[in-house]
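The data are set out underneath:

___
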Amino acid sequence: MVKRICIALAALSLVTACSAPNVPLPPAKYQGNHRLVAFTFVDPEDVPTLCGQGNAEIIAGHVDIACTKKNAVFTEVILPNPFKWPITDIITWAYIAMHELGHANDWPANHPTS
């Protein structure tokens, strides 16, 4: 899937090279669909404040972070605003979103690989 996206973006001259970013993806059992009630898109520099100390994850190679917060009523995913993310690195943004979907599907914060 990522290869297809890379090829399509390269064909549109939106990227010059594509490779899998250094963002861990959840195991298959955490990759299912999930109805999220709340997505919060904010300026990248505001994400740490909304995620709170200890709940946020620093994405390797970026100062931007994202997090998933769950409570009894809903799941909220806080992500950097994609319009403020460099289009040449949109694949990393997509990996961050997939990473957070895994947490919405109960992938533990310690990122087990099975």
User: Anything to note?
Assistant: Confidence is low (pLDDT under 50) at residues 1-5, 7-16, 59-64. Helices lie at 2-11, 47-51, 90-104.
